[in-house]
Amino acid sequence: MFKNKKVIAINALILAALLFGSTFIIVKNLLNDLSPTTVVFLRYLIASILFLGFGGIPSKKYMKPGILMGFFLWIGYITQTQGLLTTSTINSGIVTGFYIVLTPIFSKFINKTTIDRKNYIGSTFGFLGIFLIAINNIDQLFGNLFTLICASGYALHIVMVERYIQGKNISQLMFIQSMVGGLLCIPFLKFNEIGISLDFLYPILFLGLLVNFCAFYLQLFGQKFINASTASLLFGLEGVFALLIGVFYVEEILNIINWLGVIIVLFSIYYVIKE
Questions:
Q1: 112 phi-psi bin (left φ>0, alpha ψ -120 to 50, beta other)
Q2: For residue range 147-157, what is the model confidence (pLDDT) as tens digits?
Q3: CB neighbours of 182 closer than 8 A, spacing ≥ 6?
C-alpha cells in the first residue's frame, strides 16, 4: 500500500515540477507591465481565496507552520521574480535548482533527518547537471545574488513542509502560507498596477489557480510520503521543463553540453527514486 502511495506521490511531485517550470515565460512576459511584487501578490491572493474555500478557516495549530512556510516561500518567489527582470527564463529556471544541494543539508540540520547515501550522490550529480545546463550564463550563475537567496528560500520551504505536513489538512496549511505571502507583499505594492486588464488577467489566473493552488497542493501531498531530499531532486525537473519550454516556445538555443546536463539530471532522479 505504501509503495503505491509513494508512486502516486512521485507522480504528484513531477506534475508539480511541470507546472512550476511552465511559469517562467509567463512571469517574464507579465513583468513588461507589472512589478515583481504585484505579480507575486496577485498569485497569493487567488490561492488564498481558493484554499479558504476548500479547507475552511484553519485552527491555531496551523499558524506557526503556515507562517514559516509562507515566509520562506515568499523569499523564494520575490527574489526569483525580481531576477527574471534581468535573466533568461532558462537561466532562472535552472540556476534556481541550487536548492537540490541545499535541501538535504537544511533537512539534516533542521529536521535531524538521516539522508541516504544515494540522496547525497543524486543531489550532487543533479546539481552538476543543472550547472551544465546553465553553463552558457556562467557569469549569472555565480554573480546573481538573487538566485542564491531564491534557492535558499525554496530549500527551506521544502524542509518546513517535511517538518510540519504530517497530520495536517493541506488546504488549511496552504491558506496560512498564501496569506502570509500576500501580506508580506503589501508594503512593496504599486497599487496603481492592480486593476482589471485582460492583458494580464488570464496569465495571473493561470499562475494563481494552476500553480499557487494546484501545484503547491500536489507538492504538499507528495511530501507526505517523500522525504525533502528526494522531493527537491524531483523538483529539479522544474528547471528541465523550463528549459524545454524555452527551447520549443521561445526558441532559446542550447549546445551539446547543455543537453548533457539534462541527461544527468534525469539520471540522478532515476537513481534516487528507483527501488
A1: left
A2: 668 888 989 99
A3: 41, 44, 45, 48
Q: What's the CA gap between 150 and 6, in Å, rounded? A: 28
Residues 170, 55: contact at Cβ < 8 Å? Answer: yes
The residue ranges of every structural domain in the chain are: 2-273
Range with top average pLDDT, 12-21, 189-198, 237-246, 254-263:
12-21
Instruction: Tell me, rounded to whole angstroms, the distance of Cα 271 from its chain centroid.
Output: 22
Angle between helices 170-185 and 36-55 (to 10 degrees): 150
What distances in angstroms separate CA 64 from CA 59, 97, 163, 221, one per listed residue?
Answer: 11, 27, 12, 19
Quote the CA–CA distance of 72 and 103 in Å, as a whole number: 13
- What is this structure's pTM? 0.82
* 227-236 residues labelled b (16+ CB within 10 A) or e (exposed): bbbbbbbbbb
